[in-house]
C-alpha cells in the first residue's frame, strides 16, 4: 500500500494519483482549483481538541499518535475505502502543516499500514 505524502502547497503532479486532503481545516490561501483535491477526508483528521493540544510539539508526538489512533477507530468505513483505493491506484495524502515529519498525515499513513 504505497501511500505518498505531500504538502498541499507543493505543485500537484501526475504521480500523486488520487489526492486526499487529510486536514480538518481547508489550507489558507489555496483555492480548490489550485489544490486539485479529489477527496477531503475531514472525518479522518484529528479532532480540534487533539490538534490544539498537540500543537506540533515533538515531545508530544508519541502521545498524539496514540490519541489520534484511538480517534481513527471511530471511522473504519472511510479508512477501509482508502486502503482499498490505495491497492488499485496511487494515493497521496496532502496536508498543510509546515512540519513534514510529525503531522497527522504521517500518523494516518502509519496507522493504515499497521491496520490495513
Descriptive notes:
The chain has helices at 32-35, 48-54, 61-72, 76-88, 104-115, and strands at residues 3-7, 18-21, 39-40, 91-95. By secondary structure, the protein is an alpha/beta fold. The protein has a four-stranded parallel β-sheet, with helices on one face. Helix 3 (61-72) packs across helix 5 (104-115). The radius of gyration is 13 Å and the shape is globular. The N and C termini lie close together (8 Å).
Number of helices: 5
Strand order in the largest sheet: 1-4-2-3
Shape: globular
What is the string of helix and strand elements? Answer: EEHEHHHEH
Poorly predicted parts: none
Number of strands: 4
Sheet/helix structural class = alpha/beta
Key terms:
116 residues, alpha/beta, 5 helices
Topology:
Layout: E1 3-7, E2 18-21, H1 32-35, E3 39-40, H2 48-54, H3 61-72, H4 76-88, E4 91-95, H5 104-115
Parallel strand pairs: 1-4, 2-3, 2-4
Give a concise summary.
Helices cover 41% and strands 14% of the residues. It is of the alpha/beta class.
